[in-house]
Amino acid sequence: MKLIHTPHIDDADGFYEELVAAQRDMDDAQASRWLAKLVLLLANHVGDREVLAEAIALARANTLREPG
Fold first, then answer.
1. CB contact at 8 A, 54 and 3
2. Which of 3, 19, 48, 68 is the most exposed place for a label (fewest CB within 10 A)?
3. Count of structural domains within the chain
């Protein structure tokens, strides 16, 4: 399995709204814990270590390039 780099989520806007709504009424610490749990659940679902390593590296590189 390879990491998909092109848009691949049905109803991407609806998905984004659901992500935002799920964090509503959470403080920053709760939102961080929720996000970590979501990442671990999805990583377990993917299961492919090469894909997960590529995703980790890509997310890190993109984050470090952003103005801070």
1. yes
2. 68
3. 1
Q: Residue 44: which domain range?
A: 25-65
The answer to whether residue 4 sits within a structural domain is no
Answer whether residue 64 shows pLDDT above 90.
Answer: yes
Token duo for residue 18: 């659901």
Query: 23-49: b or e for each residue (b if 16 or more CB lie within 10 Å)?
Result: eeeeeeeeeeeeeeeeeeeeeeeeeee
For 26-46, write each residue's pLDDT tens digit. 999 999 999 999 999 999 999
DSSP state of 39: H
Do 3 and 58 meet the contact criterion of CB atoms below 8 Å apart? Answer: yes
